[in-house]
Amino acid sequence: MESKLELETILLPGVESRRPVVIAGPCSAETEEQVLNTARELSAIGVKIFRAGIWKPRTRPGSFEGVGSVGLPWLQKVKKETGMYTAVEVATAQHVYEAIKYGVDMLWIGARTTANPFAVQEVADALRGTDMPILVKNPVNPDLELWIGALERLNRAGIKRLGAIHRGFSVYQKIKYRNDPQWQLAIELHRRLPELPIINDPSHISGDSELILEVSQQAMDLNFDGLIIESHECPARAWSDAKQQVTPQHLKMILDDLVIRDAQIGDKPRTELDELRQKIDLLDKQIIESLAARMKISESIAKYKYENGITILQSKRYDEILQNRRQTAVQNNLDADFVTKIYEDIHEESVSRQNSVMNELQNKK
Ligand code: PEP
Ligand code: MN
């Protein structure tokens, strides 16, 4: 379906001029002291928009669910003292009213909320008649229509200062990152809504303070407009998302290390060819990462076979793989022989890996 949003280009006056726009602050507001200390340090390194979770959507009950409205006056103090804009997550109409009452400057809708059209509609209705800037995180599941749908609901309620936050997608299997970036979805969002600013959230994608720089760099190379990064005066003591938060000083190092490349080729806008090539590069990276994950599993299989005294080559299984992959190829409009050739190579490599593992185990005995 065609999507068209009526947008205003300025999200917040005075912060849009240079890439990346940076939003930083703790995952959660915990105490007045923690909020103010962190805010002072962030302001000192030049951050203009301060984030803090007041109401926290947690996967399981019983963990810290945010301080609630008592934290809002702390954000007012941040504004007064540092001049930074403030931003919080909202998920209900009540959150919206409270945030507006305490002069919060920008709101975001969390990934779990974006996945729920009833909740998004409630938030949109509560915002009717305001000109609050709203950022919409991608839903937890990789569904672009759901993401765009949330933006449309807000736009139809008259919200024109809109942006998106790309925070990655939940996956069941273990991957390098906490959430799978699936960059192609953000790229496709940009293709569908070229005027919409897109902010990357390397904190929730990576889940690890050591990986913030590499994810941020990738986002900048894909021409994202900004970054939202969780920063805490003392990450080790954070009440939520401790592993992924960085100190304001660490954040400064990350921002200093980022290489911001020019999106323009001469005076011409980025060409379609470049966008297509970027998609190819990303897909190739994913193919290689999948191959690596597959080989790792082969090695575990080798261990199992060794321990249970089974041969490496199980011809029936190999036949099944080839038949099944040929079918999948045809279902996906690929030539079956082409895919068979690739799987012959993959299988050969997998057998050779299994051989090495078995030999190693045997030699250890
Ligand atoms: C957050 O920004 O702290 C948060 C809860 O993020 P998400 O909705 O992306 O999980
Ligand atoms: Mn968080």
Structure description:
This protein has 365 residues and is of the alpha/beta class. The protein has 2 domains: 21-261, TIM Barrel (Alpha-Beta Barrel), CATH 3.20.20; 269-364, Chorismate mutase (Chorismate Mutase Domain, subunit A, Up-down Bundle). It is built from 13 helices and 8 strands. It has helices at 32-44, 72-82, 93-101, 111-114, 117-127, 144-156, 183-192, 202-206, 212-221, 248-257, 272-307, 315-331, 336-364, and strands at 21-25, 49-51, 85-89, 106-109, 134-137, 162-166, 198-200, 226-230. An 8-stranded parallel barrel has the order 1-2-3-4-5-6-7-8, surrounded by 5 helices. Helix 2 links the parallel strand 2 and strand 3 (85-89). Helix 3 runs parallel beside helix 5 (117-127). The longest helix is centred in the C-terminal third of the chain and has 36 residues, at 272-307. The N and C termini lie far apart (62 Å). The structure holds phosphoenolpyruvate (PEP) and manganese (II) ion. Phosphoenolpyruvate is lined by residues 27, 53, 57, 110-111, 137, 167, 204.
